[in-house]
Amino acid sequence: MSNSEKKKVTIYSVANEAGVSLATVSRVINDSGLVKQETKDKVEAAIVKLGYRPNAVAQGLALKKTTTIALVVPDSSFLYIGKIINGLLDVAKIYKYNITLHTTSSSINEMSEIIDNIVKSRADGVIIYNESLSNSESEVLNSFQVPMVYIGHKTTNLSSCNVYVDYSQALYELVNEYLDKGIDDIIIVEDRKNPDTISQIISGISRAYEEHGKKFDGYVEIPEQYHNSYEFLNEYFSRHKHDVVISMRDSQAVAVLNTCRENGIRVPEDTDVISVLDSRINDMVRPRISSFVIPSYDLGALAMRVMTKMLNGETVKERDYKLNYIYERKASTKN
Amino acid sequence: MSNSEKKKVTIYSVANEAGVSLATVSRVINDSGLVKQETKDKVEAAIVKLGYRPNAVAQGLALKKTTTIALVVPDSSFLYIGKIINGLLDVAKIYKYNITLHTTSSSINEMSEIIDNIVKSRADGVIIYNESLSNSESEVLNSFQVPMVYIGHKTTNLSSCNVYVDYSQALYELVNEYLDKGIDDIIIVEDRKNPDTISQIISGISRAYEEHGKKFDGYVEIPEQYHNSYEFLNEYFSRHKHDVVISMRDSQAVAVLNTCRENGIRVPEDTDVISVLDSRINDMVRPRISSFVIPSYDLGALAMRVMTKMLNGETVKERDYKLNYIYERKASTKN
DNA sequence: AGCATTATTGAAAATGCTTACATTTTGCGC
DNA sequence: GCGCAAAATGTAAGCATTTTCAATAATGCT
Questions:
Q1: How far is CA A312 from the centre of its chain?
Q2: Residue A21 CB closer than 7 angstroms to strand C?
Q3: Residues A242, A215: Cα–Cα separation, whole Å
Q4: Does the reported pTM lie above 0.70?
Q5: A291, A328 Cβ separation under 8 angstroms
Q6: Angle (nearest 5°) at CA B21 between B16 and B22
Q7: Do A75 and B89 touch (CB under 8 A)?
Q8: Whether A121 and B254 lie within 8 Å, measured CB to CB
Q9: What string of pLDDT tens digits covers the 335 residues of chain B?
Q10: H/E segment holding residue B148
Q11: Which of A97, A116, A120, A260 to mutate against chain B (most B CBs within 10 Å)?
Q12: Residue B189, exposed/middle/buried by CB under 10 A (0-12, 13-18, 19+)?
């Protein structure tokens, strides 16, 4: 009756109950074919009767694989990676993989600690979302001996795959349009949190400027903390007014929106405001902010799909998977 | 040179390298004391030299525990549970537990599939965040034979713990204040997604009304989808005007805010708008919405801490952990 | 019926660790 | 030096699977 009396049921119990050897039971649960239908039925009946659930840990030991993959993400913004995780988990479910979640704050030794942990757990693979990896972090990661997929961050690690959106091209096309119309007072406001992404973005913008025979110097660096950045922007827009203000995330774009308004700058009449990354916030702001819609769910789903391919030994022809973005014009831009 | 030549290093390799038995190595890595300092040094040198990392899978098999706990969350709003996850992971890191992530959509058989998966993986415990469990889901969960902690949802399952915020009391106190001032035209707008939470909230409000000799009937049900609800609210506020509008999440409160504005209702001059749950959205809206600040991070951290206690066999005196909320008055209320 | 195949099954080793128990070493008092 | 307890180390039996290889049963053919 009591829980403690309930004895654990192993493959032996099942073998015993069905009157076969444990090897046969193993064959049945792994669907390996060569078992007579009759005995298969007996075994399956025993499994149901005893409520047997194969022990994945023992399987992991015997098979030298865990069907577990480790996901490493920054601990800050689940706001932006929520959809990525959803996509990833959906695909993981299809292929019967489990996901372990690991977050990195920015402390120095953190990454190697996490990796140590992942190595011990013998995950079959690692998926990393991190827009800004330091050199030492990259180095640690490169020493990893398991399949790796990077999301949103193109690496030079030859043995891993990358799933990302080409911000550079996206911004190039956007800015190009403005320049074609003769609008060239464009700035981008950002903090230093994501140096890689920022440099991609700026390279795209710069290319557009160069092709128009101009030089881009509109990078305005803002403080990292939201409230600080808010103050900074408030101060900034009390002195400046531009045709176009681009920011990395819609949360920052909203700060731009609010501070512009507080300084008598009308959006979009006086200034176009654009956000590169979109999140649910944007549903709730008026005016809605024109932005690129990043296919977050697809990023996650594709990353996981690529991972399964790597693990199945399917040859992955492509190391790089570039996803499309869509620019959505909303109420914060007039052009 | 090549990776394929690299042979795996096990506890045997280390024992061999150090010239001791594997038992001794095991004692060293588990810090079990009774090893002479001298041999301990030898072993540790060998570990470093070979780059040995204990295989957690084999350990799991030998010890019958995985130091892994499974986290089950709804697949929808990482917006609200991001901080919970952060708190949970931080504590998990301290106690060296790994977290596997499982999401539930609302499909019927999903929960038992997830549980099947978790049982197979032999997680040491399960933490569940889900505001609305169906009866059949609860039943499946109750049959679980591992320690469980529920976040934000008080269950009657005797063998599990609950970590939650008492919405009923929170709303009681809030509404009480209004009623004391003679303001009683209060409504709450919500969809049916979280029946449990909603009924808690309404019970709190009702209690306040009753103590003032009145009856509460201000529950306005709105459609689940954001855009539908937006239309609904727009229509609604073209016909109604109330002293106070309460909604469950700040995303909905923003919809209220916007639709009020579009119908010429000024906030807070004409109507107070209040949100029960707070998220980062609220930083970005003007006016900021008065809301309860739910201690999300603490919910997650405490849940994990309670779990570690259950797993260590420390007696958990309390099954229920009620956390405090703070009501923050912001610009969307005048009262 | 007898033999050669082939389809099923079982026995046992392997997976990498922990730990109870056995054995060896050490230290100490005389 | 000797004896004995305590400390240190080693041996081997689990832990729950998979899988190779050998053994057995079933089948087809003459």
A1: 22
A2: yes
A3: 16
A4: yes
A5: yes
A6: 85
A7: yes
A8: no
A9: 333 345 689 999 999 999 999 999 999 999 876 788 989 999 999 999 999 999 999 999 999 999 999 999 988 778 778 889 999 999 999 999 999 999 988 666 788 899 999 999 999 999 999 877 777 788 888 888 899 999 987 787 778 899 998 889 999 999 999 999 999 999 999 887 777 788 889 999 999 999 999 999 999 988 877 667 788 898 999 999 999 999 988 888 988 998 998 899 999 999 999 998 877 677 677 788 999 888 889 999 999 999 999 998 877 778 899 998 888 898 889 87
A10: strand B148-151
A11: A120
A12: buried
H helix and E strand count, chain A: 12, 12
Separation between Cα atoms, residue B322 and residue B26, nearest integer Å:
42
Output DSSP code: residue A75.
S
Strand partners, B167: none
Other CB atoms within 10 Å distance of the CB of residue B232 = 19
Q: Residue B174 CA to chain centroid, in angstroms?
A: 24
Q: Which domains does chain A have, with CATH numbers?
A: 1-63 (1.10.260.40), 167-294 (3.40.50.2300)
Kindly write down the DSSP assignment for every residue of A248-306, as one continuous string. EEHHHHHHHHHHHHHTT--TTTT-EEEEEE--GGGGGSSSPPEEEE--HHHHHHHHHHH
User: In this structure, what token pair is assigned to residue A177?
Assistant: 């349009």
* In chain A, residues 1 through 30 whose Cβ sits under 7 angstroms from any atom of nucleic acid strand D: 8, 10-12, 22-23, 25-27, 29-30
Q: How does strand B290-293 pair with strand A326-328?
A: unpaired
